[in-house]
Amino acid sequence: MTSPSTTTPVVAQREDTRTDGPMTGGEQAILNHWLDLYRDTALLKLAGLDAEQLTRRAVPPSSMSLIGIVRHLTEVEAYWLRVVLLDEQDVPDYYCTPASQDGDFDDIHPATAAADVAAYQTEVVTTRANAMAWTDLAVPVRALRKGQQVNLRWILTHLIEEYARHLGHMDLLRDRWRPFRMTIRSGQRERDRQRGAYRDDRDHPATSAADPVAASAGVALSHQIRRCHAARR
Hints:
This protein is mostly helical. The chain has a single domain (22-198, 206-232), classed as Up-down Bundle (Four Helix Bundle (Hemerythrin (Met), subunit A)), CATH 1.20.120. The chain is built from nine helices and no strands. It has helices at 4-7, 27-46, 51-55, 66-86, 103-106, 113-133, 152-174, 186-194, 212-232. α2 packs parallel to α7 (152-174), α4 runs parallel beside α6 (113-133) and α4 (66-86) packs antiparallel against α7.
């Protein structure tokens, strides 16, 4: 019999409260908003799924899973907004270690899925505060990136594009069970529909693991994840 703890959603369903943010705001406010919006989106894509679903991998040979992406983003947040931004020396490698360099994706288990999500949420509280406290986008940050100086403008832009890529991966993984539909205010939804820009409330057929197209996508995504690991540190 399946344990009740593995059939309970790890992230409860919740109302989508995301907004367009400060559309005429300053550069730092806009960059921080988009990064926060993508953080919220990552959690929304987990909502309603249990631990087994979060740890289900795509298709062989891909090691990618929803919880693996969350673990990866935890490491990415800590690296860029603690190690690089502030030169913190005591930041742990949460999952990727010398003994398991791809541990964020490889060493997953339903029993630790809830703790992995909690670790991500806790890390984001810290990294969000660090980014907000650093008020000069142009000045070099405290540590070097592969021997080169970098500023917070570059870091935030990189984090936004990295989240955007991984959220696309999460869409494909989540569609195995149910489509992710973005909740948009009815007025905005109608305006977007009229101009043909709204694409998130159409039905998405579930992807079969036996589908050769899905298999090819899984291989491609696996290769992209490996390239991401190579470029991160």
